[in-house]
Amino acid sequence: MSPFKGQTGLKRILNAGGYSMAGLRAAFTGEAAFRQLVLLNIVLIPLAFYFPVSRGERAVMIGVCLLALIVELLNSAIEAAIDRISLDRHPLSKNAKDMGSAAQFVALSLIVAVWATILLG
């Protein structure tokens, strides 16, 4: 058992919420890509309510937008962990960062594919 896992119950939930807010704050202040995705979501999510689509389609349109934010948070976490380990150039570090970037590319492509399928389908 980890010595860092000391809290249980409501205290653990409150701590986790605080850590989550700190992570969102760090991503927003330190990651331009995250801020750009937030802006994209500020545009696309209200726009999803404008189009005459079913509730299910609207949920999927919004869900893929939020998924891109999740992927960017994970990508930024990977980059931070790699940079914490070493700033030296290493093929495995490059692979990890490139794979995180590729995941974000797939998530953004998913937004385009889902929105195009629903709106043009």
From TrEMBL:
<keyword id="KW-1208">Phospholipid metabolism</keyword>
<keyword id="KW-1003">Cell membrane</keyword>
<comment type="similarity">
    <text>Belongs to the bacterial diacylglycerol kinase family.</text>
</comment>
<keyword id="KW-0460">Magnesium</keyword>
<protein>
    <recommendedName>
        <fullName>Diacylglycerol kinase</fullName>
        <ecNumber>2.7.1.107</ecNumber>
    </recommendedName>
</protein>
<keyword id="KW-0067">ATP-binding</keyword>
<keyword id="KW-0594">Phospholipid biosynthesis</keyword>
<keyword id="KW-0443">Lipid metabolism</keyword>
<keyword id="KW-0444">Lipid biosynthesis</keyword>
<keyword id="KW-0479">Metal-binding</keyword>
<keyword id="KW-0472">Membrane</keyword>
<dbReference type="InterPro" id="IPR033718">
    <property type="entry name" value="DAGK_prok"/>
</dbReference>
<keyword id="KW-1133">Transmembrane helix</keyword>
<keyword id="KW-0418">Kinase</keyword>
<feature type="transmembrane region" description="Helical">
    <location>
        <begin position="33"/>
        <end position="53"/>
    </location>
</feature>
<feature type="transmembrane region" description="Helical">
    <location>
        <begin position="102"/>
        <end position="120"/>
    </location>
</feature>
<dbReference type="Pfam" id="PF01219">
    <property type="entry name" value="DAGK_prokar"/>
</dbReference>
<dbReference type="GO" id="GO:0016301">
    <property type="term" value="F:kinase activity"/>
</dbReference>
<feature type="transmembrane region" description="Helical">
    <location>
        <begin position="60"/>
        <end position="82"/>
    </location>
</feature>
<keyword id="KW-0808">Transferase</keyword>
<keyword id="KW-0997">Cell inner membrane</keyword>
<dbReference type="InterPro" id="IPR000829">
    <property type="entry name" value="DAGK"/>
</dbReference>
<keyword id="KW-0547">Nucleotide-binding</keyword>
<comment type="function">
    <text>Catalyzes the ATP-dependent phosphorylation of sn-l,2-diacylglycerol (DAG) to phosphatidic acid. Involved in the recycling of diacylglycerol produced as a by-product during membrane-derived oligosaccharide (MDO) biosynthesis.</text>
</comment>
<dbReference type="InterPro" id="IPR036945">
    <property type="entry name" value="DAGK_sf"/>
</dbReference>
<keyword id="KW-0812">Transmembrane</keyword>
